[in-house]
Design goal:
Blueprint lengths: L2 E4 L9 H17 L3 E6 L11 H7 L2 E5 L17 H12 L7 E6 L1 E8 L2 E9 H10 L5 E3 L4 E8 L2 E7 L2 H14 L3 E5 L1
Helix pairs in contact: 3-5
Length: 192
């Protein structure tokens, strides 16, 4: 192995201090065995502060920020997986706590199609990037660039439902990559 990536999500607030201690102890073992240790984290917010990414940045080799799921399966309203503002905000908040040479920014290689009716969200469909483009093509939709989100957006009506999607594709990924490069962080990760 080259290393270990720890992706522990939904840790309780009471468990935060124990998680950090686990990482301290694991980091000693990783260093003594020549292994790289990285952790995956939510975008820094007040509710996830007990993950203590500042302390993680002291003990692990890389702190990976999952700069996606801006709108997730349980969201109250439809929206992009990762708008450019969401990614830029994630970078800024992270670099306030973690050195840039220890920071990796994770971006999405997937999309979410939101199926809605008058009552709201009925279903959320996760799609690979190529499948998402095919979904638009099959339904005769030409997505339009939305400069506010830094994504292409399209929607269509079918069988009484509205289908919406903010599309991750070459241009949106390039925009995210530019922001990441300009920040000077150590690199990127991707979730597919």
């Amino acid at each position: 192995l080259d290393g270990i990536n720890i992706d522990f999500e939904k840790i309780s607030q009471d468990g935060g201090i124990h998680y950090i201690q686990f990482l301290r102890e694991l980091s000693i073992r990783c260093r003594s065995n020549g292994l790289v240790l990285s952790t995956d984290n939510y975008v820094p917010t007040e509710y996830s502060s007990y993950y203590d990414i500042g302390e993680q940045g002291v003990v692990v080799d890389y702190v990976v920020i999952m700069a996606y799921d801006e709108h997730y399966r349980g969201s109250d309203k439809s929206g992009p997986v990762a708008s450019i503002n969401f990614v830029e905000d994630a970078i800024e908040k992270t670099l306030a706590m973690v050195p840039k040479e220890k920071t990796l920014i994770g971006i999405p290689f997937y999309n979410r199609m939101w199926k809605e009716d008058d009552s709201g969200i009925v279903e959320v469909i996760d799609l690979a990037m190529t499948n998402a483009e095919d979904m638009f093509r099959v339904n005769g939709v030409e997505p339009a660039w939305d400069s506010q989100t830094g994504l292409s957006y399209g929607e269509y009506e079918k069988d009484g439902f509205t289908y919406r999607m903010w599309l991750e594709e070459e241009t949106s990924i390039d925009l995210k990559m530019q922001a990441i490069k300009e920040s000077g962080v150590a690199g990127i990760g991707a979730w597919k």
